[in-house]
Write a structure and sequence with these properties.
It is built from 7 helices and 2 strands; from the N terminus they run ααββααααα. The protein is mostly helical. It has one domain.
Length: about 180
Amino acid sequence: MTELEERDRKSGVDQRGTELCQACGLCCDGTFFTFTSFSDLENEDGQTMEGGKSNSQPQPCAYHQCEGGCSIYASRPSVCRTFRCLLLKGVSKEQMTLDAAIEIVSQAKRHRRELETAMKRKASFLKPLPLNTKFHLIYSRGKAPDGECLREHADAFLLYGTLKRLVQRHFVTGDDKKE
């Protein structure tokens, strides 16, 4: 067992937790957070580098892979290693099965994809921004929509609200911060 695997084990992340995190990635793709704050710069082994300074990583994370997972998961920074969403906590405490948690992740990803599709029709140039930022830039403009545009706005707000409720219920609370 590597030192990093040992750290995961000690912090309560077993193989099921690793599988859930790698299947999900919603904390890294801009769905939950707009940025991640690092107290110090860390190297690829999660060790603080000498002279490290405060650093902020915008979301989506550069290491996030398209359908979930992290390309540097085994050596991810400590801020990522210590974050626990509600689903991970439930699986770790055996209050929820891994299959049930992965189904909830699938629902959230489906809602996110539908919302992303709706937003692409409005402003495809906003692709690398966090979901909340994109949504508010597109749909919070002062002019009230009419006709077909009104229906598109209503559909987008419904998708956004559904995803937001799902995230609040199963993933993060207002107290959770990836900082």
